[in-house]
Structures are given as structure tokens and as C-alpha cells.
């Protein structure tokens, strides 16, 4: 039972039961509160949240944005500063007065602009105030980065013809970062924001536009989700066919300088980036692990050519290195396959812009939607959440035509629950080209199934969950797991309740439920206060009216969680 598990483990809490309500739950002897909600002012010149309008359009880039996701906290000259993503929008909530007669609720340039301003990244100073953690309004660190913020392109693809557009013939300057999903932190104190489903922002005013192979591989077509192309031609692929090549990257932001220009690093490859987990190789080179969240896409690793010296700015190291894709073998071993012009038959810029096609060319293993990667700080191993894959079965293929047979770390057809793969690099060196792998957990429902869909032995009726997604290690070497799955609590998902955050012990395999989100929400994004006594957790797209009262729209928020006795929780 779960009580015995708590007593025998390193977990400093009694695991909680599954929940189905519209609230947040944490263990006994812990408390939580809201740090910031979508629409809360970051600057005193922003209007207070206005439910009737879904927030004031004129100051949408002066408030905390929508759909909080990956985040990291930085201690800068004594201030605590959080950088946090705003992945996408909830159009019908953000534009409550928009007539829904067309396919899109976006019916004017003002609507599209408001949505552009609500997405991207927030940088904000926070402090532990009289009634819990709060944003320091008007702090000089506060900043909103949106779909219109100027940034630069770095690395081998920058300035090449593939990156040149109507507005930017140089191919080196781009506006905006799109669909910022997971995150990462560099060893030199900057933030990495990761562009995921950027395809949804592009469309064509010419419905007859011919969809290229490159567009098709990334899901870019004539139909967009947000109708931006109706109001801004750079999102119109029939007018500016190279603009989509300038999105789908890892973007570096300096949280210590609100005037700094973000950099999109093309050496790390273009795909639907989940997050970026950085670690140092034995010889000092920089290693970045990255997932591409799509059915049958790949797991990637970047290794810099240069070495990083403690105390230096390593940004230039992300401009020059080798990108590889993972191949997993049935015998529990695997290797990193370098993407080079020789091996892929593609020129360098083409290879980075169309990294998925390069991965197919070298025989990468198709995965069950690689979400977050987390690196254990106290053992030479890394983990990737493979969230689910409704289409994995014999004869199925990904968009590039690569087989999705059930095999290796993706063993189940019609994988509705997901799993977490772990790899240990050869010699304990993340720069090594081979590794051993196993599954840390295979999620499942042991109350419904007594076969492989019941999950691995560390899944019990007391801790079951589906669709692992966000992951972070705490400094004590525990793996925190956040879910983004089916929260119907019915059928194959009966007993799992709402999306949640659990913690796993890499040494024993034990997993315990720590937090549950409101129904309708995904729990995503996790970071800690400088002294590790507070965990900040993101609640994305909640249902009901959370965290407000009846009649208010639901508002994605970052919450704080801490122990009543003030001891560290990470
Ligand atoms: Fe934005 Fe794959 O999660
Ligand atoms: Ca995610
Ligand atoms: Ca997900
Ligand atoms: Ca999400």
C-alpha cells in the first residue's frame, strides 16, 4: 500500500489519493497558493484582469500570459527571477466576445494581435510576501516576450537562403518565438525556451498552395489554427514560404537583462521541441538532450565542439557542434547517430532546418512522442517521458514513412498510457556515443488490465497515472513527473483522476503522487525557490472557474507549494 511505500522511501510526505474536482490538492503538512494567473499585471500600467473582455487587449503584453508551461528560477543579484513559457492560447476564453461563425474565433487584426501578445515568455521577479509568494510588479527584470519580439538567428543555418524572407533578406533577424512548451537552463545562467507546435500559426490565403515535403513533415498546411495569416502576411506560406523555417528552434534568453535580444540557435536543429536538458560531458563539452513531441519522431542530442569553462558565457558553444539522433536496440543498448552532410546527403543548413528528414535518413528510432528529458544530478543517467502514441501498431508509419512497429522502448501498440525511458551513457559520460537503456516505468491501469497495459510493477492502484510529460530532477536526485493525459477517470483511465505531479526514486523505482491539478488542467512546469523550500508548479488550461469563483473564466496559473515546517522539498 502507499503508506508502507512512504515509510520505506525517501519521500517526505504521505502520498495523496486521485482527485476529480476543480481544485489543487497537496499532501498533509504542505500548503499551496497562487503566485500569478493569466492576465495579472506585471507592470502597473496594465489594466487589472477584465473577465468580460477576457483581459484587456491593449495591455495583453503587460500581463502574465496564457497557458503557463516550462519555467526556471534564477537568483540574480539577490533577486529571484522566474522565466516561464506561455505555450498557446485558449481562444474562446481569451476572446469571449468573438462570434464563432467562422472556423476560427479570430475575426479581426485586434483579435490576432491580442493572441500574439498573450503567448511567448514572461520574465518576472518574485518574492515571498506577507500572504505567500507574489510577483514584484514593475521590477526591472520584468519582461514579456511575444510573437512579435525581435530576436536573432545563430549557427549554421542563419543567413542561408532557407532563412531569408520578405521582411528579412539577411536571414538573421526574426520576430517572435512560437509555441513555447518546455524549457531548460544553461550552465551559465540563461533560459532556454523551446518552440513546439509552431506549425499551427501558419496558413495560406491561397487554398491551392502546393504543400512541400518539408512542410508536410512538420504538419504545415493551408489551414492554420489561429488565422494569423489573414492579418499578417509573414504567417502566410503562399506569400512568405521561408518564414516557417525560422521557428521550431531552441531560443536562449538572458533573464538578467530585460533589454537583451533572444537568440534562436539553429545548430540544435528544428523540430517540435519539447524541452532542453543541458549537462556537461567528461571533457567539458556541452551536451543538450531534446525531445521532438510527435508520434514516431525522434530523441536528439547536441554536443558542442568547444568546451565550457566555469564562470564564462557559453552561448557561442551552442552555435557549433554535432546534432545526433538516438537509435535504441532491442538488447537494451543504443547509440547516438550523428547528423552530418555525409551521412544524410543533405547540406548543413537543410539538414538542420529539416532535422526530422535527416533523422529518417540515418535510421533513428521512432518514439512514442518524446516529451521532457531530465538529467539526474547525482547519477550518470537521463530520462525521457514518452507520453503516448495512439497510432503505434504493426504497419503504421510516422509522417516521414518510418515504421512504428512496437519495439524497444516503445513496446506497446495503441499506447494510451505512456512510459519513461532511462539511459545510462557509456562510462558515465554524457558525451559518449553509446548507452544502455531500460524503462523506469510503464504507465498503465492495474485495476483494468492484468497484461502489459496494467503497467510495470512500480505502478499500483495507489499511484497510477497516464501520459507522463513534464519532468525535472530535484537537487536530491528525485525525479518529479507531471502528467498531460486523459482525466475522465473512466474506462481505461478509471481511478487515475485528474492530471497530477508524482515523484519517483530512481534507485528503488518507487513512485508516489504528490499533487493533483483541477479537472481539465495539465500540470506542467516546475522550478524551485533559491533555498529549495518552495516548489513552483504550472497549471495549464484548467477547467471550471479555477482558481476563481463561479462565473469567472478559468485562468492558467503558477502556484507555489511548500512544507508547513519550512523544510526543503527539492
Ligand atoms: Fe507542449 Fe509536448 O507538450
Ligand atoms: Ca508538454
Ligand atoms: Ca503533452
Ligand atoms: Ca499542454
Cα radius of gyration in angstroms: 22 Å
The structure class reads mainly beta
Ligand set: MU-OXO-diiron, calcium ion
Strand content: 25-35%
Poorly predicted residue ranges: 1-7
Largest sheet properties: 9 strands, antiparallel
Please tell me what the overall shape is.
globular
Protein name: Putative phosphatase
InterPro entries: PhoX, TAT_signal
Pfam family, one: PhoX
Region (Disordered): 393-412
Can you tag this structure with a few keywords?
570 residues; mainly beta; nine-stranded antiparallel sheet; six-stranded mixed sheet; 7 helices; globular; disordered N terminus; binds MU-OXO-diiron; binds calcium ion; Putative phosphatase; TAT_signal
